[in-house]
Amino acid sequence: MLLGLVAPAAAQNIMAPFNIGSAMDDAVVLGQGIAYGDGERQKLDIYGPKNPVGPAPVVMFIYGGSWKQGNRADYEFVGRALAANGFVAVVPDYRLYPDVTYPKFLEDNAAAARWIQDNIESYGGDTSRFFIAGHSAGAYNAIMLGLERSFLNDYQVTMPVKAIVGISGPYDFYPFEYDEVRSVFGQNDNPEGTQPVNLVTSDAPPIMLLQGNQDPIVRMQNTDHLAKKLKAAGSWVTVKYYENIGHMEAVFAIGAMWRWRAPVLTDMVSFFTQFGAFPSGAPRPSYTPAPPDGQTDIQATIDKLDSVLDPIDDSKRRAE
Fold first, then answer.
1. Phi, psi of 122 (to 5 degrees)
2. How far apart are CA 51 and CA 58, in angstroms?
3. Confidence tier at 186 by pLDDT (50, 70, 90)
4. What confidence tens digit (pLDDT) does each residue in 213-229 have?
5. CB 269 within 8 A of CB 133
6. Beta-strand runs (E) in 36-146
7. CATH superfamily of 8-316
8. Domain ranges of the chain
9. What is the pLDDT of residues 76-91, one digit of tens each?
């Protein structure tokens, strides 16, 4: 189920190395802090290819943080990675607990999608090729937007979601065993309706589910259960597990500095290409299963990641 938290200060420190200029892909910042709503957290950043050739496919990336933390600036490395591979990438902030509970953060993501629909062509994006991706809690948000259409419908988002990639996401965590989750979801009148596994239909958009097989934060059964439901409904689902990859490593592997750890970006781009991102085909992102110079001390880095993540702790469980 879920889960674990990263303290905000620790999260910022751990993300910093991935957002240094020399550690990121070469792309263009098309806009920063653009408002898609009236709230302070309702802003987004946009990244684009350095040398665009006509309108580009659009991907909205939703970051994680247990619905309690996160900042779009910490994921510049993801936006630049996607942009360097031909996408106009949009990374929105959204409101978090304790200011809001479910479903307000999903409504924010839907509002960001509406802003994209209305404005992204001015930034070189093609609304007929719109994709969503997310990591951790952001993967939950991304999948929910694809399965529970009311969020996008309420914001009159009519552009189709061509495909979705969920990375290390919680999709089946009711009953709410942990206080961290109860605080965000527990007041809902229909808790079962908050779970992606209960919302699967045959007309779900194509979905790819990615996760490391050493994830200490989100149990692998979340991916397993959702994949089985999608397959049973006849929906398109592709599943891939990465050997010896943990929770945060899966998103870090999107960026240039950590890409040698797992082909997450390659798999994302290939999947989106399969469903129309690049009708003429696109070059596969560079991936080599060996660390570049200066990146050989993998165990020390992993130890640092683990030190700021809370693993699944059954002592925190409470019966419903």
1. -70, -15
2. 15
3. confident
4. 999 999 999 999 999 99
5. no
6. 43-48, 56-62, 88-92, 125-135
7. Alpha/Beta hydrolase fold, catalytic domain (3.40.50.1820)
8. 8-316
9. 999 999 999 999 999 9
